Structures are given as structure tokens and as C-alpha cells.
Amino acid sequence: MRITRTFPCSVDRRQSAALFRDIGRLIDYASPGGDIAATTADGLDTAAWKDLPPWVRRMSVARRGADIRLELALDPAAPTTGSEQVAGKLGRALEDWFSQAVRPFPRKVFCIGWQKTGTTSLTAALRRLGLLSWHFAPWLIGCRHFHSDPVAAVPDFDSLADYAAVSDLPAAAFYRELDRAFPGSLFVFTDRPLDSWLASVQAHLQTSLAVDGQPHSVDRWAYGQDRPDAAVLRERYLRHRGEVFDYFAGRRDFLALDLGQGNPWHPLCRFLGLPEPSIPFPHHNRGGNPAGTL
């Protein structure tokens, strides 16, 4: 039994190869049993990915000419409604990656807001503006799986080179190094009221513990311990915020943006020098409920 979905592909082959590579890395990160995503000549293939229901035997994604094709191999007893829901969720993620028109952009854009400040929403907005964007790159510090420890003494900035924009931890913590590695870049700091952020990040960490039995490696790296309390979380968030504002004080290549205030398209598009779209600004993951890997 199989389900297939086809979507238009708006990125070139070099860009789609980078996306397939990094989607595979995300799948591996979310799979404690080891590397399970295999990159093929024109896509990727995976089985035993923990974010898939047990009745999904295999998932493959491939570029076919100007299209992206998703195929799910299912057990005969797979529930019809559940199968359609899984295919729909995967399809929306793939469309977000592959089906939005990409424009040349002369400068890198780094979202250096801390996790749970709207980095997913900002990534979605940048994609809608035509910037090939990536959110969450744990391999930057050598984390291959959510239970592994960082192994990179020097961040692998070459792994970010294929994208016009990159967001979320761990990249956000390396704004100084990114400023030196990619001169002329633009930096967007997503800000959020402290109490709202604290509730969101606590929900995120609690979900990781409930679902996976342990905090994820990037979270352990970010806070320096397995189960940070509210005081530790507050201190780390405020320290990052203060250091960012000190570092970029008076600079025109820096934008602080609270996505909960007004229409974020106005300051963002003015900062990037891009026309403002007529669609609503995308707001993802509201309420502190972490999304799945895709």
C-alpha cells in the first residue's frame, strides 16, 4: 500500500541537493538508533524514523524533473485517515522547503534570536520573501543525534554556505563568529517578553523529556545542564540578549524584532530592502507546543 504526493519544485538542483542533505541530517538527529536517512542520487530515503507512525514502512522523497515526489510505503492495515494526515503534514513541510520561489539575495541573513522567540516564524517569512532558508542546524556543533554531545571545537560554518538565511540554535549563539565568517551579513534578533519565553521554553524542554526520555543535545549544550531550572533559563536568555545588543550597538546591519508586536512585515522588509507581501505574516508554534522534526 502506498501514498504518493507531488509538489512543484522552485529551487535549482544545487539547492535541492542541499535541502535533501539537511533534511536527512534532521531525520538522523531525531533518530537515536543511528543514521537512518540515506541520500540518493535525486533525493532521500528512510525507514524506522521515530517521527513516523509504526505503520509507515518507508518514506522516500525525490526530485522528478520540475517536481518533488513524496512516497510512503504503508502496512496493509494502516489507518486511512491517519495515513492522509501524515502525508499532509509531510507534504506541507516539503512545500515550504521546495515550492516557494527563490530570489538571488546579495547578503546572508542570520536570525540570532534565542530558541522559542519566533525563529520558526521568521524562517517561514524569509522563505516567503524568496530567501532559501534553513532552521535549526545541530550538525554545526557536531551533534548528529539528539542524545549525542557536541564534538566540534570549531563550528562547521561551511555547512551553512548553501543558504541565504539561517536561524535558531546553535547558529544564533555564534553571531560574532558568523559576523567574521560572512562579512556584510544582516542580523535579525527575534525578541520576546521574558515570562512568555520562559513558559514556552519550559514546555519545549518538558516535551523532550516526556517523548525522548532525555533533553536534546542542543538544549543541553545551550544551558549547560540536563534539567535547567527557571533561574538558569532566565539567566541564559538575558545574557544572550544583553551580549547581542552590546555587540551590535549602533550598527545598521542589525534588527531587533518582536513578532508579537504590530505587523512584522513592515520592519523586516524595510530592513531587507524587499517589497512587502500582501499575505499575513506566518506565525508558527504559538503556545509553546514544539513541532515535530518536519
Gist of the model:
Pfam families: Sulfotransfer_4 (PF17784). With 294 residues, this protein is α/β, with parallel strands linked by helices.
Describe this structure in words.
This is Sulfotransferase family protein. It comes from Methylomagnum ishizawai. InterPro entries: P-loop_NTPase, Sulfotransfer_4. Helix content is 36%, strand content 17%. By secondary structure, it is an alpha/beta fold. It has 2 domains: 2-98, TATA-Binding Protein (2-Layer Sandwich); 109-272, P-loop containing nucleotide triphosphate hydrolases (Rossmann fold, 3-Layer(aba) Sandwich). The strands form 2 sheets. A 5-stranded antiparallel β-sheet has the order 1-5-4-3-2, covered by helices on one side. Strand 2 (37-39) and strand 3 (43-46) form a beta hairpin. Helix 5 crosses helix 7. The longest helix has 19 residues, at 80-98. The relative contact order is 0.14. The model is unreliable at 287-293 (pLDDT under 50).
- Counted beta strands: 10
What's the number of helices? 8
Mean pLDDT: 93
Radius of gyration: 19 Å
CATH hierarchy: architecture of the largest domain: 3-Layer(aba) Sandwich
What portion of the residues fall into strands of 2 or more residues?
Answer: 15-25%
State the helical fraction. Answer: 25-40%
In CATH, the topology of the largest domain is named Rossmann fold
Low-pLDDT parts are 287-293
Largest sheet: 5 strands, antiparallel
Question: What's the domain count?
Answer: 2
The helix/strand order is EHEEEEHEHEEHEHHHEH
- Structural class call reads alpha/beta
- What distance lies between the first and last C-alpha atoms, to the nearest angstrom? 23 Å
What is the topology, as strand order, of the major beta sheet?
1-5-4-3-2
Q: Which term fits the overall shape?
A: globular
Q: Assign the CATH class of the largest domain.
A: Alpha Beta
CATH superfamily of the largest domain: P-loop containing nucleotide triphosphate hydrolases
Protein name: Sulfotransferase family protein
Organism: Methylomagnum ishizawai
